Automatic annotation (TrEMBL):
One of its GO terms (molecular function) is oxidoreductase activity, acting on NAD(P)H, heme protein as acceptor. GO terms for biological process: heme A biosynthetic process. The keyword Nucleotide-binding does not apply. Its main location: membrane. InterPro entries: COX15/CtaA_fam, HemeA_Synthase_type2. Its cofactor is heme b. It is found in: Membrane. Pathway: Porphyrin-containing compound metabolism; heme A biosynthesis; heme A from heme O: step 1/1. This is Uncharacterized protein. GO terms for cellular component: mitochondrial inner membrane. Keywords: Heme biosynthesis, Iron, Membrane, Metal-binding, Oxidoreductase, Transmembrane, Transmembrane helix. It comes from Calcidiscus leptoporus. Pfam families: COX15-CtaA.
Length: 451
């Protein structure tokens, strides 16, 4: 019966009775006649309100908690869409927040690349968790410059070259901006996280991921200082061939890998909230999804090898392509002992490995794109594979241009941004393989071929 008819029936049936108790899941009422209320067993109890008043006061609570007069939430057609809409709105808010945080991390990686390429990373010789304000007077600038002069980079590279306070201000700006941007990302992530947590809008399944991102973000600042400190230590600088101060390539790779990890988790989780994925893999797309995942691993390894190229400053050597100073295998390849050092500390080996990984990644992306041309892919997945092909070719082209021009700042920073762009596209491709409509389309195509 309609709700108002049920309510009228209840009022007529129980107009001489009072409700003594009701459950939250519906009205499990004890109906007590008025004459019984005078007995000693009921004398100490407050007289409950009449039924029609109780119903009016409790209607909103009962509807919100899923029952009214024993009616389940599934039987209330108006309540289910409202609840689903609220959950969807919360998921979208969380998704856009994570995507915005990931975009901030992307910008942070670009600024970090410029900081490295302009040799600005060692201009700030101390680290404070709360940050450091911009110098406001000439006296403060002189104090910062004098402190910088006590460390190896100034003594080895700038002493006696006419490097003055104006030059120092230029390199100080990039390192200061890089550090303060990192702290700003902490606020961009941390404040909404606290808000969503207080409002109870974080699903239990998502809480470990968000907590892990918080820990990784906090540790990234410590890793960054640990990296910078390696370029400030005189003993370590003396061990570098040529004696040119630079940070440890191991620590630089750790710093960049951590940034990639934060970006990957944030972006993939965010787009999954904005466009929900199926829990498992779609059967029709399982082979394609497996290949794209392997491709993501290959692209990630290529990016990490690029971090060692940057850490060893290997891009300033062998500035020819495809040969390396006229040779396929450069002189000095794999000569260090123990053997593992060649993968991380040898300029010819590190650069050759990065070239090989980049070309392999490009060939793999191209082969993947060719293999899916006859597949009835949905529009989103088709767009993802096309974008993957364009991003891969663009990144390799940027890499070659950066190399043959001996790593100018604008090309070097664009190449680093291109690596993260390519990885973003491969993540989006993996995501698109798990969108439900993709599997439905392929299933219909397979059924049509059978018939």
């Amino acid at each position: 019966q309609p709700f108002h008819e049920m309510l009228r029936a209840c009022l007529h049936a129980f107009r001489d009775a009072n409700v003594a108790r009701a459950s939250v899941g519906g009205i499990a009422a004890y109906v007590v006649p008025r004459r019984c209320m005078a007995s000693s067993s009921f004398a100490c109890r407050p007289t409950p309100p009449p039924l029609h008043r109780w119903l009016r006061a409790q209607s909103s609570l009962a509807l919100g908690q899923g029952a009214m007069l024993g009616v389940a939430l599934a039987d209330l057609p108006a309540a289910a869409p409202v609840a689903a809409s609220a959950v969807q709105e919360s998921s979208r808010a969380l998704g856009w927040w994570l995507v915005a945080t990931s975009a901030s991390v992307f910008a942070m990686v670009v600024v970090g690349g410029i900081t490295r390429l302009t040799r600005s990373g060692l201009s700030m010789t101390d680290w404070r968790p709360q940050g450091k304000r911009w110098p406001r007077s000439e006296a403060e600038w002189e104090a910062e410059f004098k402190q910088y002069q006590q460390f190896p980079e100034y003594r080895r590279l700038h002493h006696g070259t006419g490097f003055g306070l104006a030059d120092f201000k230029n390199i100080f700006f990039w390192e200061w901006a890089h550090r303060m941007f990192g702290r700003s990302i902490g606020l961009i992530y941390g404040l909404p996280l606290a808000y969503f947590a207080v409002r109870g809008r974080i699903p239990r399944s998502l809480a470990p991921t968000l907590a892990g991102l918080f820990v990784l973000g906090g540790s990234q600042g410590l890793i960054g200082w640990w990296m910078v400190k390696s370029g400030l230590e005189q003993k370590r600088v003396d061990e570098i061939e040529g004696g040119i101060p630079r940070v440890s390539p191991y620590r630089l790779a750790t710093h960049l890998t951590c940034a990639f990890t934060i970006y990957t988790i944030g972006l993939y989780t965010g787009i999954g909230l904005l466009q929900p994925r199926v829990d498992g893999s779609i059967a029709a797309l399982r082979p394609l999804q497996r290949r794209v995942r392997l491709l993501a691993v290959l692209i990630g390894l290529t990016a990490i090898s690029g971090a060692f190229v940057a850490g060893m400053q290997a891009g300033y050597s062998y500035n020819t392509f495809p040969l390396m100073e006229g040779r396929v295998i450069p002189e000095g390849y794999m000569e260090l002992r123990p053997l593992y050092r060649n993968f991380f500390e040898s300029v010819p080996s590190v650069q050759l490995h990065h070239r090989a990984l980049a070309v392999t990644s490009l060939a793999s992306v191209t082969a993947l794109w060719l293999s899916v041309q006859r597949m009835p892919l949905p529009r989103q997945l088709r767009l993802a594979t096309d974008a993957l092909l364009v991003a891969a070719w663009s990144q390799v082209g940027l890499g070659i241009a950066t190399l043959v021009n001996a790593v100018p700042v604008h090309l070097g920073s664009a190449h680093q941004a291109g690596a993260l762009t390519l990885f973003s596209v491969v993540l989006f491709t993996i995501h698109s393989c798990r969108v439900p409509h993709a599997g439905k389309m392929l299933a219909r195509f397979a059924a049509a071929k059978v018939h």
